[in-house]
């Protein structure tokens, strides 16, 4: 069976997909910033008819066409559109690969007869994409290079065994050679592919490099060029259609358990874990209900995931009954194989993850925080607050510094201070008498931070145990004490120990 390849070129993919969602009347172009100037990235036919071209500076384009409407180009959205088209084109071939950033290459060997022949296949492809509002040019040939070249120069079909005749009239730039090689060929009068076909390969290689000969032989079939399709990312989703409508929470949870077993088996097959799981319920009245949960860490344990759905499923309005269920994983992360189940007592890490998942689904994962150590001697900057679901716990760092209080608050002044360290003082309208004092611990402000609270200079910290019970963390500012009045409240409470 002869090999047949279909090349599909989208000359205006970026602008066509952008205009599908937000149509614009008149000249339109997408712009892309390069260096210090914006340039035209993709144009619609009306902009091209005004003499504009891809790569032109936006300032020059506006001088030629003042009515030009523009939008910034979204390269990620353009790549996603091409990926969607690649999946859609699988209806014409079992193997479809991307061909650059604006084309597709499909191996249709043995397929055209299902559509009535190669001509009918191209017509069906053209009609469907035109209805979608996408401009395209297609070509069919026996090699990838020939199909690529013909698609970008008018399109058509090259019969089997007639490659040289089919591409001979095309310019040498159709062989996917670089611009410098094409200019060098033009200078010696070799402007068409037909001018190269019958020339000896050794002189061409010596003068123009091996790349030219490789591309020429690939287009003519003398060198193999495979169509390697990129494998699709695994899709984690399962569905169930029910023979009879259901409405009880117990019935929905039973169906969810069956779906979770299948879903978690698929996750384990790809060594992935779910971070978000979405349950979609289809009602008899064609309405839909949805429950989505987040997980504090990647997980694929069906029983633990099902427990997090109980509250959301209980609040669902089933209407006249639920007839279909679909379970999917919008966000997944790698998860190495691990032992799950088999023990009635959950591991400590699992219990903490379940707690974070339960609380995070109620109040939001960004509001469940954990403390992480930071490299700073300043009490207020010696820790970081980070979402517990997106950070790993870190053990406390070993340090020779004295212990820190369990509660830290904004410095509060002491009143009626007697002695140094204070033998007695008033704080929060209560009188305290010192039982034991340990210190001082001198902390110098970090000069590279302009912190208003530390502009008074260095501090001497004391750990004070009082007769009344509280164990306080006090500090005094020696620099302020040197020039302040004796009655000035320059002693402060900064924290309280357990």
Structure characterization notes:
The protein is an alpha+beta fold and about 500 residues long. It has 3 domains: about 1-230, Reverse transcriptase/Diguanylate cyclase domain (Alpha-Beta Plaits, 2-Layer Sandwich), CATH 3.30.70.270; about 235-360, Dna Ligase, domain 1, CATH 3.30.1490; about 405-495, no CATH class. Helix content is about 30%, strand content about 30%. It contains 15 helices and 21 strands. The protein has helices spanning about 15-20, 45-50, 60-65, 75-90, 120-130, 145-150, 165, 180-185, 195, 200-210, 210-220, 250-270, 300-315, 350-365, 480-485; strands at about 5-10, 30-35, 35-45, 70, 95-100, 105, 135-140, 155, 235-245, 270-285, 290-300, 320-335, 370-375, 385, 405-415, 415-420, 425, 430-445, 460-465, 470-475, 490-495. The chain has a 7-stranded antiparallel β-sheet with strand order 15-21-20-19-18-17-16. A 5-stranded mixed β-sheet has the order 5-6-1-7-8. Helix 6 crosses helix 11 (about 210-220), helix 10 crosses helix 11 (about 210-220) and helix 12 (about 250-270) packs antiparallel against helix 13 (about 300-315). The protein is elongated, with a radius of gyration of 36 Å. Residues about 480-485 have low confidence and may be disordered.
